Amino acid sequence: MARRRTAILISGRGTNMTALIAASMEPDYPAEISLVLSNRPEAPGLKRASDMGLATDVVDHKAFDTKPDFEAALTARLEAAGTDLICLAGFMRLVSEEFVDRWHDRLINIHPSLLPAFTGLNTHARALDAGVKLHGCTVHYVRAAMDNGPIIAQAAVPVLPGDTADALGERVLAAEHQLYPRALALVAREEVRVVDELVRFSEAPSEPPGMLMSLGD
Ligand code: GAR
């Protein structure tokens, strides 16, 4: 199967983007990163991506009067790059139903919690406040509701006594960097499909969809 042409959408530093690009440089990885697109011209991830030899572009949401106009420009740029799959990687704009429909089940996101717990922002502080003992991250197909959609893969990390939101966040981020390339590989190899808004796997998926990270990971 040809490698799937994958665009990464970012708004910030792009550490998950970097993990995806690094994975895509392995010869047998099933996706190639054809474009890194940011809605913020100042996103540090853009320089990181071009330093790694990737094509980058900006579609600045502030340059558009309406969300449909902004998203039409995004879609035009994605189409021009021959995009098969889109990875949101710290892309901090809510996407509309129309955008989700246009890229239906070809649009995935990573979120720093074990969904459906802790959608939204400040997930690590909220996990500590709730007293959970396992926290983690989720890769899911995107739906119009924020941080919602069929779950592809999750990684759980322990919450440790005395954890701060920053310390816990670093542990989760390390898990994100391992999980996202594996989840994209499952999608790109077409080992997952959505049935009745749940993800179904091929009989023997090549990557484990659930990962328990030990402290050494
Ligand atoms: C990551 O932790 C990602 O899970 C989160 O933004 C961060 C981006 O970091 N995404 C969301 O909260 C989406 N709701 P990065 O730019 O270093 O990859």
TrEMBL record:
UniProt GO BP: 'de novo' IMP biosynthetic process
Binding annotation for N(1)-(5-phospho-beta-D-ribosyl)glycinamide: 14-16
EC number: 2.1.2.2
Main EC class the enzyme belongs to: transferase
Binding positions ((6R)-10-formyltetrahydrofolate): 67, 92-95, 109
InterPro entries: Formyl_transf_N (IPR002376), Formyl_transf_N_sf (IPR036477), GART (IPR004607), GART_AS (IPR001555)
Domain Formyl transferase N-terminal stretches: 5-184
Keywords: Purine biosynthesis, Transferase
Pathway(s) annotated for this protein in UniProt: Purine metabolism; IMP biosynthesis via de novo pathway; N(2)-formyl-N(1)-(5-phospho-D-ribosyl)glycinamide from N(1)-(5-phospho-D-ribosyl)glycinamide (10-formyl THF route): step 1/1
PROSITE patterns membership: GART
GO molecular function: phosphoribosylglycinamide formyltransferase activity
SUPFAM superfamilies attached to this UniProt entry: Formyltransferase
Chain positions of site Raises pKa of active site His: 147
GO cellular component: cytosol
Active site: 111
Superkingdom of this protein's organism: Bacteria
Family statement drawn from the similarity comment of this UniProt entry: Belongs to the GART family.
Alphabetized NCBIfam families for the sequence: PurN
Protein role: Catalyzes the transfer of a formyl group from 10-formyltetrahydrofolate to 5-phospho-ribosyl-glycinamide (GAR), producing 5-phospho-ribosyl-N-formylglycinamide (FGAR) and tetrahydrofolate.
UniProt xrefs under HAMAP family: PurN
Protein known as: Phosphoribosylglycinamide formyltransferase
